[in-house]
Amino acid sequence: MNKPAIAVTGLGMITPVGNDTDTTWDGVCAGVSPARTVPELEGCAVDFACTVSGIDLDAAVGGRTAFRMGKYVKFAVLAAREAVADAGLDPAGWDGTRVAVVVGTSSGGSAGLTEQAVALDRRGPAATSPAGILLTIPNMPAAEIAIQMRATGPSLAPCTACSSGVTALSVARDLLATGQCDIAIAGATESIVFPVAMTGFARSGAAALRDGDPSRLCRPFAADRAGLVMGEGAAIMVLERAEDARARGTTPRALLAGTGATTDAHHPTSPHPSGTIARAAVDAALRDAGWRAEDVDHVNAHGTSTALNDATEAALISRAYPHRPPVTAPKGVLGHCMGAAGAIEAGLTILTLQHGVVPPIANLDAPAPEFDIDCVTKLPLRLPVRRAVSHSFGFGGHNAVVALQRP
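Predicted structure:
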């Protein structure tokens, strides 16, 4: 049976540089990181991050339900509202039984769990929230979106660490392709800028430590890269079968042409040094899309600014795409949004397809001499991109790649 073409008809984003899709795109193209000192992290080895700002989340969510939502849930709800409106859809008018919700996260409500544990320890049971469980469990973004959108089809919450966003898109694509739904609301969300998580990343050696201006510390693919900077946010997309989108007169933002996934099965945090298993995910995505390597016009890299990940990915890119397509790495601006990163970066790849612009890698003058890749630096690159891929590689060896195409 031939696979149906899958269209991305709506996109919603909330990130450290913008509380919607357009503002996020402008901020990423500007190439300046908003990383700053975070008062709540005072005393931590890492006391800075890229955080969402300039928005009252409770007021934006509205109603009487915000008290039961962790920040990661609020991000997802707001991004989903934008995505559904962007798709030209109205939940009041659709058949909710044919609408799926697939929203990934890596750490879910770990911040909420920590807050409740501290309240219990310091002040006793009466100090904890009646919504304490809802503030912690990772399926709540999908659940709250389903409630708000009257979506009674499949509702799932995949967790594959930093690959969770691409995994969610892949699962949603399969639900559409197999006829289990007609509309899928899919993406990922994350908010773990709190002392326990930040201390954990510092202790693991993955995080950049303060060395001057925090906004200059995330340098993907640089010779002097020094570790990741934490970010937060969400990206949600509306996916439909392309024929259904055409039938209702909608022009897609992009086509989801293919996905690929593998597992290194090597180490809990370090990528397999050969990169062969991650390369297999790239090959699977290209095969699924029906593309050759040379068809790829642009690579949106995982680019964490850590020593091993950047070295492994740079070697992978040079081998998998020998024609040297231009490479960007949004984490230089946004920080590492963990479980949300793959969805956010897929969304940015879609915007590159639409605008014909590849954003620059922040804080990078040139890639390390040993990296044979064409990094976009300093200024956005105008380029008529027709086909692009976005890489996501997570702790646990999760590798996920999505291939996206201009419609």
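Summary: The chain has a mean pLDDT of 96.
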